[in-house]
Amino acid sequence: MSKKVCVIGGGFGGLSAAALLAHKGFDVTLLEKNPGVGGRAQVWRQDGFVFDMGPSWYLMPEVFDQFFEYLGKNRADYYKLQQLDPYYRIFFSPDEIIDINRDLDRTKEIFDRFEPGGGERLQRYLDGARYKYDIAMREFLYTEYRSMFQFFNRRILVEGTRMNIFQSLDRYVGKYFSDRRAKQILEYAMVFLGASPRNAPALYSIMSHVDLNLGVYFPIGGMAALVDGFRQLAEDMGVRILTDHEVTGLKVENGQITAAKTAHGEVNADIFLSNADYQHTDQKLLPPEYRSYSSRYWDKRTMAPTMFIIYLGLNRKVPELVHHNLYFSDPWDEHFEQIFSRPQWPDNPSYYVSCASFDDDLVAPAGKENIFFLVPLAAGLEDTDQIREQYAEKILDHFENLIGTRIRDAIEIRRLFSHRDFQSEYNAYKGTALGIAHTLNQTAIFRPSHRSKKVKNLFYSGQYTHPGVGVPMTVISSQVIGSNIAESCR
């Protein structure tokens, strides 16, 4: 094919779409505003520490392997994986700490301690999650929904009840467990998918199958190695990658984009695919008459959380931590309410602590520790230096009490990152880290469309589109729309 494609944004969605379209024979140029590709998966290097600034969990490994195979490549030739053990550690309190590891029988024993028969009920819950996952992978995730009739087809009507699409996750989990701790383990992933368990469809119980059955992995060298692998794949397919090329506008003539405007000049193409922030592309890059959605539409979306992140390089190890660590507050409903119902900086937040140097010697100097704290927050909050500093002290106070060890005296380097950084670095609407939430009315056909409603040759990929938030989902999104673009041009 001689058609030219311009991909805007070099996140995983942009890199995977560019690689696929180049593999299909298109002449592909990718434009990235930042000095390096990876989108939110940027890397911060300082004094021998290497921090993954974005995604830090590697889940659903078959999605990545299948994508590389689709392009005739072997994923292992681009980056290596290790399966973590334990998968993650959970701090319920200073006196109650548990590890979730590869041995499901040990996890079932933990659930038996939570409540009588908990292990057997966990197995039944996971059997249902596996069923839903298999159906979703075969029938729903790799589909572009272009109309309501396509979504509400016979298959969805037959499987919808079994897959609990029209029921909340919290209510569904409550049918199996009453213990707070059991419910938190089965629901925590919704934070990283940008929703509260109370308003997310129970379909997302599949996430328990993803981490407890399929397992938690990590690329050797960190998520930076994953970015490098996808960049190399795109270049091997023939993609031309131009960094420091921020798109400042899209030139539209007769209902079609003819060029992307940058400070370096215009880039012409026949087809444009945006992996940049969807709202930014729709509302800022397009002329008003060519926008698919109104400003009111965007204002009414339930936004997924953003994140307050504290990056720390420590001059010694923290033996209380494993690679992935979670603290669940009690009660945790208040934290969700302060994200989705009463937006504010949370009073008693749950949070995540990454300690990549637990497994990976490449991310910190010998004998030192690479950690970061991540607190989910409502998008659109006031974000000043004073607020950040006070909140950082609040989190560190809590953490030191939680593990019974002081870490402030070991800090060599420190960086805070939140709303305004997501806005400046990624043009993120309201400073969100994740896009729009996975509520029932923002799932599948109800998410922003893969295709512009008013511009014939403009397409979208990434976390705003179906199937949604998370690195595997953005790769699936790009595989779906990229294949459909190629098919329509045959």
Automatic annotation (TrEMBL):
One of its GO terms (molecular function) is oxidoreductase activity. Residues 13-477 form the Amine oxidase domain. The keyword Oxidoreductase applies. Pfam families: Amino_oxidase. Pathway: Carotenoid biosynthesis. InterPro entries: Amino_oxidase, Carotenoid/retinoid_OxRdtase, FAD/NAD-bd_sf. The keyword Oxidoreductase applies. Keywords: Carotenoid biosynthesis, Oxidoreductase. GO terms for biological process: carotenoid biosynthetic process. Belongs to the carotenoid/retinoid oxidoreductase family. This is Phytoene desaturase. It comes from Spirochaeta africana (strain ATCC 700263 / DSM 8902 / Z-7692). The lineage of its organism: Bacteria, Pseudomonadati, Spirochaetota, Spirochaetia, Spirochaetales.
